[in-house]
Amino acid sequence: MSALLAIEDLSVEAGGRRLISDLSLAIGPRERVGLIGESGSGKSLTALAVSGLLPRGLLPHGSIRLAGREVIGAAERELNALRGSAVAIVFQEPLTALDPLMTVGRQVAEPLARRAKRDGAPLRGSALASAVLDLLRDVALPDPARLAHAFPHQISGGQRQRVAIAMALACRPALLIADEPTTALDVTTQAEILQLLDRLASERDMALLFIGHDLAVVASAVDRVVVMRQGVAVESGPVATVLAAPSHDYTKGLLQAARHFDDAIGRRL
Ligand SMILES: Nc1ncnc2c1ncn2[C@@H]1O[C@H](COP(=O)(O)OP(=O)(O)OP(=O)(O)O)[C@@H](O)[C@H]1O
């Protein structure tokens, strides 16, 4: 099976400081992989590097092949095409993705229309409006017709994250990167968003790179995990194996911390 995403010996440097070192990671079509680590371990930078969105001044080395195309060194035009079809990201804070001055419907319509145009079957007028409502329904938003006319500040945090997910899905990515998509939400809403991502990934044959620091949350969403510490992948393997028999002390520490937390709130890992 050829990889949808193949990261090989990725390093990211800023001013001579190495933020990611020699990271290799492959994701096949429809595969679900979790990237775990504490704050500052390099998870978000990995996601940004994969989508060609690293901030200015951060220099990537190595290779990132996405749907067979090299991302590192690619021209902006090529990256835009990849972001429109191969990969989309959902961020921790949905407001990052949403324009506060635009209705939910218009924001979802834009990527839908772009993707349709690229596919040679442009969507306009009532066909576009009905595609927007279908997508809002697909992410289980209540009363899509009313919600399409709302502005981001008029809906809840969980609903905003569903809208951000709808926007990401609008370009029908082969790989969805979810960068701590539930961290800013309450526990019940977290569980609902996880179930939603799980359903959408299955229904749409999408691969998932799920990023998080909470081992219990990540483990429930993926088949395989990669554990990162200070920019280095220290351990990787099937979820069950890593949870049952972590080989690295850092992973053992993460597991222990998660168990203490779960015991405190009555949840079991
Ligand atoms: N624009 C930047 N310039 C310089 N250093 C940066 C920049 N962005 C991130 N870093 C550094 O890179 C390292 C990795 O950051 P990254 O955001 O990938 O961590 P993370 O694991 O996603 O953390 P969190 O869980 O808090 O989001 C950190 O040490 C961070 O300070």
From TrEMBL:
<dbReference type="Pfam" id="PF00005">
    <property type="entry name" value="ABC_tran"/>
</dbReference>
<dbReference type="InterPro" id="IPR017871">
    <property type="entry name" value="ABC_transporter-like_CS"/>
</dbReference>
<dbReference type="GO" id="GO:0005524">
    <property type="term" value="F:ATP binding"/>
</dbReference>
<keyword id="KW-0813">Transport</keyword>
<keyword id="KW-0067">ATP-binding</keyword>
<protein>
    <submittedName>
        <fullName>ABC transporter ATP-binding protein</fullName>
    </submittedName>
</protein>
<dbReference type="InterPro" id="IPR050388">
    <property type="entry name" value="ABC_Ni/Peptide_Import"/>
</dbReference>
<keyword id="KW-0472">Membrane</keyword>
<feature type="domain" description="ABC transporter">
    <location>
        <begin position="5"/>
        <end position="255"/>
    </location>
</feature>
<dbReference type="InterPro" id="IPR003439">
    <property type="entry name" value="ABC_transporter-like_ATP-bd"/>
</dbReference>
<keyword id="KW-0547">Nucleotide-binding</keyword>
<dbReference type="InterPro" id="IPR027417">
    <property type="entry name" value="P-loop_NTPase"/>
</dbReference>
<keyword id="KW-1003">Cell membrane</keyword>
<comment type="similarity">
    <text>Belongs to the ABC transporter superfamily.</text>
</comment>
<dbReference type="InterPro" id="IPR003593">
    <property type="entry name" value="AAA+_ATPase"/>
</dbReference>
